[in-house]
Write a structure and sequence with these properties.
Elements: E1 6-11, E2 15-22, E3 26-31, H1 42-48, E4 52-57, E5 66-67, H2 76-89, E6 95-100, H3 102-113, E7 118-124, H4 134-137, H5 139-146, H6 151-157, H7 159-165, H8 168-183, H9 185-191, H10 196-202, E8 215-220, H11 225-237, E9 241-246, H12 253-256, H13 258-270
Parallel strand pairs: 3-4, 3-6, 6-7, 7-8, 8-9
Antiparallel strand pairs: 1-2, 2-4, 2-5
Helix pairs in contact: 1-13, 2-3, 5-8, 7-8, 8-9
Length: about 270
């Protein structure tokens, strides 16, 4: 059965939100990761649309969702309140939240504040906890963030040397990270380009234990060690959280293994709906 994918926009107090929508049934809201927009979820929601009413918004400052003010101070709290206004505008009363990376941090923060709205959480390699040194974790990202766009040419020119030294994959990762940060400056603002005391104040280490709703943590088997540590920490802190490792998945599960992710989501929701 062919399902039509709908693109929509709505003006909120903080700006304009763009979203993709498909299907009917139980409402499921998908939040994208740090260096992505709602298109990240297309392979998954196209598989789930026959069973669920899927909403995938671009977070404020990402993709086609634009803030009303040219200069805006990004924070997790701002994204949570923007999400809350968006869901209220759509008259979504109760729903499941599925989120990746930075979206996971926002989704978990939303669930803590509006626990009566969220029926369940599925988090893929979520951010939002203090694992190791935050400054150290984002050291390369900080350097790439201030690197002029012309620096991409310099990085690419290092490919022959990187190939000889056996670090070609690392270099390609840095190039992709620079491209992602240039495309999504809001990600840099939320993750590392603001005062450390503010970032730490929005981390969920001391509050994740209050997440009393059903939770599923999905972690790619080929993802970085720090992502695995974050997922394990969430699973250990939230009382109703279960963690599952997705075989063959790396840092972008919705795009890399969409069929497996869709099956995990379907199975999770079927337990409670």
């Amino acid at each position: 059965m062919y399902l039509s994918l709908r693109n929509s926009r709505v003006k909120l107090s903080v700006g304009q939100i763009f979203w993709r929508e498909i299907g009917s049934g139980a409402d499921v809201v998908f939040l994208h990761g740090s260096l992505h927009d709602s298109a990240q979820w297309l392979p998954v929601i196209e598989r789930l649309g026959a069973d669920y009413h899927c909403f995938a918004p671009d977070l404020l400052g990402f993709g086609e969702s634009e803030p009303a003010a040219r200069k805006i101070h990004y924070s997790i709290e701002l994204e949570v309140e923007c999400l809350a206004e968006y869901l209220e505008t759509l008259k979504l009363r109760q729903f499941y939240l599925v989120a990746h990376s930075l979206g996971g941090w926002i989704a978990a923060s939303y669930a803590l504040k509006y626990s009566d709205r969220v029926l369940g959480l599925v988090l893929l390699a979520p951010e939002g906890l203090k694992v190791g040194s935050l400054k150290q974790r984002w050291l390369w990202a900080r350097w790439l963030w201030v690197l002029p766009t012309a620096g991409l040419g310099v990085l690419r020119s290092l490919s022959p040397v990187a190939r000889i030294l056996g670090v070609q994959k690392k270099l390609e990762g840095l190039i992709q990270l620079k491209q992602g940060l240039s495309k999504s400056p809001a990600a840099a603002k939320l993750l590392f380009d603001r005062r450390q005391v503010e970032i730490q104040g929005e981390l969920l280490d001391d509050r994740a234990c209050w997440l009393k709703i059903p939770m599923l943590i999905l972690q790619g088997s080929e993802d970085k060690a720090v992502s695995l540590s974050l997922s394990q920490s969430y699973a250990g802190l939230a009382p109703k959280a279960e963690m599952q490792v997705v075989s063959g998945g790396g840092s972008n599960l919705p795009q890399e293994v969409p069929e497996a992710i869709a099956q995990h989501i379907r199975k999770f929701i079927s337990q409670y709906y």
